[in-house]
Task: structure prediction
Amino acid sequence: MVKASSEVEACPECDSANVYRRITAGPDQKDYRCGVCGETFAEPVTRAPKYSGKS
Ligand SMILES: [Zn+2]
Result:
């Protein structure tokens, strides 16, 4: 088994890796926020980094 150690955290809505941890989030708030679409979520999805496409 190959461990995917190079995975990045991504937004579950738009798949952007531009997600931020909200350290000031309260107990009833989501911990992460997407910097692209503004979605908030408790846990980001993980995927392999994207190298293709627009640069
Ligand atoms: Zn997003």
Summary: The pocket of zinc ion is lined by residues 11, 13-14, 16, 34, 36-37, 39 (CB under 6 Å). The longest strand covers residues 8-10.
